[in-house]
Amino acid sequence: KQEVTQIPAALSVPEGENLVLNCSFTDSAIYNLQWFRQDPGKGLTSLLLIQSSQREQTSGRLNASLDKSSGRSTLYIAASQPGDSATYLCAVRDFGNEKLTFGTGTRLTIIP
Amino acid sequence: EAQVTQNPRYLITVTGKKLTVTCSQNMNHEYMSWYRQDPGLGLRQIYYSMNVEVTDKGDVPEGYKVSRKEKRNFPLILESPSPNQTSLYFCASRPQAIYSNQPQHFGDGTRLSIL
């Protein structure tokens, strides 16, 4: 059974710093991995989706990497801003499976 | 605007009183799904649907029902709600059920409190 872990559960960094969020998963037979952002009282917004054949995806200041063999993904945020404060979730879709398995998220606070 | 719409956004009700949470998407997506989010447990899938009249259980289906009579709608039904179903619920959709690398789109959530 796939398990997804995100450590740390919470992270605070000063504005302007670059930061990395971590996601690990136990079963490397995945179809894709998706990073989401969740704001309080809001739903999930998809940030990046990495297919199993890809190593990374970029969107603006965000870069997500995937290392299937080690069961790890990272989300790199460059030049952090207070508007980046949110909870970041990663989710894995296994081969032959329609559902997403989510981590419990990292709550990120950017300090102005 | 492409979106997934859930109603109601907030609901406080009592044990045993049947309720329905509606979900509608305007993107013509085949795949739709319901999740619940609980502190420390993350999001867990309740039910999903790969197309009209095709539904299947997720990880935590007990106490819930769904139907998919139209492509755009996927209501979640709690026939006899209990306090352990107090949670934040999300509906999601994406195109092409099988072998799709499209991201899922989520609604804004429904916070249910069962007293």
Structural features, described:
By secondary structure, chain A is mainly beta. In chain A, 0% of the residues lie in helices and 58% in strands. In chain A, the strands form 2 sheets. In chain A, strands 2, 4, 5, 9, 10 and 11 form a 6-stranded mixed β-sheet that branches. In chain A, strands 1-3-8-7-6 form a 5-stranded antiparallel β-sheet, with no helix packed on it. Chain A is globular. Chain B has no helices and 11 strands. In chain B, the strands form 2 sheets. In chain B, strands 2, 4, 5, 6, 9, 10 and 11 form a 7-stranded mixed β-sheet that branches. Chain B is globular. The mean pLDDT of chain B is 93. Chains A and B meet through strand 4 and strand 5 of A and strand 4, strand 5 and strand 10 of B.
Number of strands of chain B: 11
The N- and C-terminal alpha carbons of chain A lie at a distance of 41 Å
How many beta strands in the DSSP annotation of chain A?
11
| Structural class category of chain B | mainly beta
Number of helices of chain A: 0
Estimate the helix proportion of chain A, in percent: under 10%
Largest interface: A-B, 22 and 27 residues
Largest sheet of chain A: 6 strands, mixed
Strand-helix topology:
The complex is a heterodimer of chains A (112) and B (115).
Chain A: E1 4-5, E2 10-14, E3 19-25, E4 30-38, E5 44-51, E6 56-59, E7 62-67, E8 72-77, E9 86-94, E10 100-102, E11 106-111
Parallel strand pairs in A: 2-11
Antiparallel strand pairs in A: 1-3, 3-8, 4-5, 4-9, 6-7, 7-8, 9-10, 9-11
Chain B: E1 4-7, E2 10-13, E3 19-25, E4 31-38, E5 42-51, E6 54-57, E7 65-66, E8 76-78, E9 87-94, E10 105-106, E11 110-114
Parallel strand pairs in B: 2-11
Antiparallel strand pairs in B: 1-3, 3-8, 4-5, 4-9, 5-6, 7-8, 9-10, 9-11
